[in-house]
Write a structure and sequence with these properties.
There is one protein chain. The chain is α+β, with helices and mostly antiparallel strands. It has helices spanning about 25-40, 55-65, 135-150, 160-170; strands at about 5, 20, 70, 85, 90, 105-115, 120-125, 175, 185, 190-195, 215, 220, 225-230, 235-240, 245, 250-255, 260. α3 packs antiparallel against α4. The radius of gyration is 17 Å and the shape is globular.
Length: about 280
């Protein structure tokens, strides 16, 4: 049975308890998350045909260094990069390298910066030049699925309500939700309780309470949901080689709903409709 604990009374490790944070903690999280979101905004003009994912990672490293923050992924469990860059059929945890992006590619960039111990975690999709309509549709569905999940994130609901909202929307658009990876609690830890599944049954899972902080980060495939891990031990790809997309926000539960800490300062989170923050019907 998972219990809830005030974050100030909890040891700084994953104890299996769900930590509840204060409004002051929320503001500290917002600072870290806004550095991450600003970095992802700054990548918009950089990501284009001919750029390598290593150049993207170099930019992320320098962006953090200039602001006195470090990427949480750097040297995390042997991972040696400041970001994850996942192209086309790569679901998540793509490792930056000297491979050049091509016209029509889609790439997810996932960044977590640590500011004064607080983790700001976000990822978003970037189109590389002009896209096929199938890739555009996948990006739109994935973005809107995230927003449906966030809409369900409010006190009294459960983690199952979040997963159900995402799954129902995705499957209504004839896409599939990846089940091998999930969102997670965070704050002063990179990965904490609770796990946030992106599929599920209403009313099941953990009750959402004011003060909880976690990510929602659905991975959506054009084809089937099955994935495999490559020999590098990190890179996850679709088994059927279908395109995959992901969007991620870090949020906190308030008395009325969700506070999105990683909102794009420039309104650039959704690359196909930059100024449209509404949920598609």
């Amino acid at each position: 049975m998972v219990s809830y604990i005030e974050a100030s009374n909890a040891p700084q490790k994953n104890t299996g308890q769900i930590k509840l944070y204060t409004p002051d903690d929320f503001e500290k999280m917002r600072v870290a998350c806004q550095i991450t979101a600003s970095c992802l905004d700054a990548l918009v003009p950089i990501i284009k045909p001919g750029v390598t994912t290593q150049e993207i990672d170099d930019f992320v490293f320098e962006y953090g260094r200039e602001r006195g923050v470090v990427a949480a992924t750097l040297n995390y469990r042997g991972y040696t990069k400041s970001s994850c860059t996942s192209i086309n059929h790569v679901v998540c945890h793509g490792i930056p390298e000297n491979k050049r992006l091509k016209e029509g590619d889609i790439v997810n960039v996932d960044v977590t910066f640590i500011k004064d111990g607080w983790h700001g975690d976000s990822s978003r999709m970037y189109p590389v030049g002009s896209l096929k309509r199938s890739a555009e549709r996948l990006i739109e569905v994935t973005h809107d699925a995230l927003m449906h999940g966030i809409e369900a994130a409010k006190p009294g609901n459960t983690t199952g309500d979040i997963g159900h909202a995402i799954q129902k929307f995705v499957e209504s658009h004839r896409c599939s939700v990846v089940r091998d990876f999930c969102g997670h609690g965070l704050g002063l830890l990179f990965h904490d309780m609770p796990n946030i599944l992106h599929y599920g049954t209403p009313g099941e899972g953990f009750e959402l309470k004011e003060g909880m902080i976690f990510t929602i980060e659905p991975m959506v495939n054009l084809g089937r949901p099955h994935v495999k891990i490559l020999k590098d031990g990190w890179t996850a790809v679709t088994r059927d080689r279908s395109l995959s997309a992901q969007f991620e926000h870090s949020i906190g539960i308030t008395s009325t709903g969700a506070d999105i800490f990683t909102l794009s300062p420039g309104g650039l989170f959704n690359p196909l409709h930059p100024d449209n923050k509404a949920i598609a019907s």
